[in-house]
Design brief:
Bound molecules: pyridoxal-5'-phosphate
Number of helices: 21
CATH architecture of the largest domain: Alpha-Beta Barrel
Largest sheet: 10 strands, mixed
CATH class of the largest domain: Alpha Beta
Shape: globular
Radius of gyration: 30 Å
Structural class: alpha/beta
Length: about 625
Amino acid sequence: MKQFGLNIWGDDNFILKGNTVNINYANQPSLLEITQAIREKGYKGPLLLRFPHLIEKQISTLFHTFSKAKKEFNYLGDFHAVFPLKVNQFPNFIHALMDVSQAYNYGLEAGSKAELIIAMSQTPLGAPITVNGFKDKEMIALCFIAAKMGHNITVTIEGLGELETIIQVNKEFNAEVKNPIAPKIGVRIRLHSSGIGIWAKSGGYSSKFGLTSTELLEAYELLKKYGLLDHLWMIHFHIGSQMGDIAPLKKALREAGNIYAELKNRGAEALGAINIGGGLAVEYSQHSNNQERNYSLNEFANDVVYLMQEIAKSKGVTEPDIFTESGRYIAASHSVLVAPVLELFSQEYHEKGLRLKEVNPPLIQELYDLFNTIQRKNAREYLHDALDHMESLLTLFDLGYIDLEDRSNTEILINLIIKKAIALLKNEGTDELKKLQDRIQEKYLVNFSAFQSLPDFWGLAQHFPIMPLDKLDTKPTNPASIWDITCDSDGEIGFNRDLPLYLHDIDVGQEEYFLAFFLTGAYQEVLGMKHNLFTHPTEAVINFNEDGEYSIEHLIEAQNLMDVLDDMDYDTNLIDKALKYKIEESQHITKEEKRELLGKLYLYLSENSYLKTIQAISEKS
Ligand SMILES: *Cc1c(COP(=O)(O)O)cnc(C)c1O
């Protein structure tokens, strides 16, 4: 693997410079120097780095691409976009997002009451807010309050029940007032066509959301009857996330476009927008044989604009404004998780670890000779001999004929011989060699929780690009599997022969080695689980000034142990008291020791769950 697939997933956001991976922006600092600068401030454990310039890049690319498509087709409708909050609601992200998007009149999409409050407080007046998902009366009332504040808000109805509530809330808010104001109304349509991939349930006929044609006609009549038809202005659909193939989108666009035109011709004169939801895919792959997306943003924008224009022309209606709610595409690239490697599990398999005796059992001596004399021309034969000896030696141990030191020597020697043989035979990728390679794969224990920081890896086998922060001028040779520090065997990113990851052979006792996980900015943070009580990692926003220098801002440290327990609704006062009492009442220690222990205990309680030291020995279950 060259460059860890940077040319596939990197989108020119990072470059290799010397032996490090650097930000391809401003003065191009390396991720390593930023990481070290933060660690020097005393923050250990995993770090989540946010890069607002990458959010800005995605937003401006989205707007410019649609603007180009509109020009090319001479399209008369406007283009608008909102960010769906469910993809990332964290304040350090949202504040940066609102800051970098000011020039685009970019808005927010909310799917719950709490998200709606974020949207109402963070969106500038005039920028669009869309509200999707299931809504109760209070949520709809909040939409009316937002409209009365002056927000450009559209409430999407997902079912006829919601429309009835809107009619009722409208009466309560507007019957007595001189200047009735209500939110704009959108309808989500239930598509006949459906999305594809693991998220397909979001669209299509079996979807949780949306109105059928029959319900649409009924909604039209209701809106008309209650004087709200002049508020109906948007048709909405969302076919699902990470759309790898463009075909389902085209089908959905034709369906939605025709529904728009039909309703407009029927008398819904205010209707003026099509909201195509999200779904724009991100390329997560590190291997060219496994790419996730078969279209470009250009093709996507051209298809949307062209199809809407065709339908508008053929049905004689005005070209609708186009809204997108892409979330993954906007947020994924903005954050990088950096985590220190704590240990290499087979580091003990070094020649210097051998405990050879004056006189060794004959088979051990033979293994040692094989190791010293193996060459390209005899490699396969020697390898087979070695494997055979290993079986015999392990049996001898079980029967009590050799001791633990002999067994340890066996393990080390067989490992070294396999490694040597693979290196010597590297041009003959036989099945046997590949299997052996899996067997000697190196396990890297990494100071992070996959459940907290890569939940879609755990839940959906979603791959995230991984690469080390330095040594990139050296070819990595260890087939690697990555273990997180949870006590759960699911927290392992195993070595995959078809999509191999190779990392460097290092001695973590001598040097630091960090791994970066890329494209973690969409969905991962809020879906992250506190399994084993590992919480959101320490995060920082990396901004650049006019001179191109970076600064580390808005540092938020991972929660300390007491705050974690407090979040679990433990009474931390009681915990505090219980711990103090047990030290004070202990029969086994002196008064001085007690004072010292209390001091240490309180220091540890103020720190987070992640491991602090470089060389931690951890048991995996
Ligand atoms: C989740 C969601 C989105 C965002 O989808 P992405 O694939 O992240 O772009 C957009 N609109 C709606 C209605 C959603 O539910």
